[in-house]
Amino acid sequence: MTSKPTEQIAPESGENRSDDGSQEQGLTPGAVLDHGRYRLLAEVGSDARCNARLWRAKDGVLGRDVALTILVGDRSDADAASNARRTLERAMHASTFNHVGVARVLDVVTQAPGDPAGVLGVVIAEWTHGTDLLDLVAEGPLPPGTAARLLQPLAAAVEAAHHAGLVLGADHPQRIRVTPEGEIRMAFPGPLARATSSDDVRGLGAALYLPLT
Question: What residues contact 59, with CB distance under 8 A and at least 6 apart?
């Protein structure tokens, strides 16, 4: 489990500054993706295993907040490009999957002209209001029964996805958020290229371990 990053908020003045690695890809609050449709608002996490940046953004067409899983890397790197394509394909397959325990995938896009350098693709999902998973234990561990109850929607989503032949990629703490109702939800879909259903199960165990300890 890793701690969450300091949230970077889009400045009112339009000045794009960031102190983390996302600046190297030009991913800063106020930047736009997919022909200007999605404006980055705040980076809320990252998944270094697949060079993914997790952002809250504004959909300029529909006027609503969305969750972006932005895959970054060297576009000339064949392995990075192949892994990104596989992740996008798997996310697209999951776009028809609806469950309260996972944010619905709205769209999947590849890099577009004008996107910041290094963007390989983006998974767009509905925005999950609430807090970071680590905020759940800010004041200490939770009772076992409470922790198990909070995890039930995510566990049910994983079970349903596996029955449908899908892998959620629910194996990283910063991809998970806690809803205002206090339930744990997969907020940033986009499984790793080689992720398996076993990885989902291990991820559930890790998500349960954190609030218990």
Answer: 37, 38, 65, 66, 124
